Fold this protein.
Amino acid sequence: METVNDLTPDEMLKQVLSPDSGIDPHDKVKRLAALLGWTMKDLAERLGVHEGHLSQVLSGKRPYEGTRRRIAEALNVAPEIIWPELADAA
């Protein structure tokens, strides 16, 4: 079975961007951040939030749309790539 570590950056990006990837938002964000050379701590710092808050947003415990949009913007992708349900809200 192919693991994330077996994928090239291009393959990982295609997998993450695929609408039917089955990858949950937390993993999508983690993978996109990794492609940029960032840890989740780096992403949290760029957003000006605590890493715990970022984790809660990504897990759905605090599904703040504004924070979700800021996360997507920091990762340079449309929010709908990470959270398909936001396409319906737009």
